[in-house]
Amino acid sequence: MPENLLPATAAILAGGASRRMGQNKALLSLDGQPLIAHVANKLAQLTKESIIISNNVALYSFLGLPIYKDLFVGAGALAGVHAALTYATQPWVFIVACDMPLLNITLLRWLFRQRQEVDVVMPKRDGREEPLHALYQRRVLPAVEARLQAGQRRVTSFLPDVKVRFVEEAAMRPLDPDLRSFSNANTPAEWQQVLAIWAQK
Known about the structure:
Number of domains: 1
Low-confidence stretches: none
Largest sheet: 8 strands, mixed
Strand content: 15-25%
CATH superfamily: Spore Coat Polysaccharide Biosynthesis Protein SpsA, Chain A
Helix content: 25-40%
Oligomer: single chain
CATH topology: Spore Coat Polysaccharide Biosynthesis Protein SpsA, Chain A
Structural class: alpha/beta
Order of helices and strands: EEEHEEHEHEEEHEHH
Radius of gyration: 16 Å
Number of helices: 6
Number of strands: 10
CATH architecture: Alpha-Beta Complex
């Protein structure tokens, strides 16, 4: 096990329908490995625990990681956040999407250091929150659950109920100049961009 692992859980959300991609983006092949495997391998360098959140346990058993299902079925990414916070054993949880193979460990470690006196550390890119590349304290679970019980599904809906430190682009660029960590594969065009960036590594 690598040294200097953070007292945190890395939770990879792999529950999306991948409608815009047209196929399961988590299993897209990158250098001969499924996309989600690259994400998991990267996060293994960061935290003491890694888990997968997915309603299809068999599909990701090859990763050898604990896999947990949503407790609020059909409630989108917010249900994934809820499950991650429920099943994580560490006090802080990095929640990331399954289609972000260019995660920057140095940036994630820096984000972890921004957690003092807040419940959530969330980057913003192009003025928009990045809830699936963010750090959460497990104590926000009741706020997340309350929104789900109220029928709300927007993944950022609970943020007004907790203390959030938003991290702007300017603060992250010294560690990730092109903000490549946030590159993901929601659409075929975005996937081609990921492949192009990967080839430049």
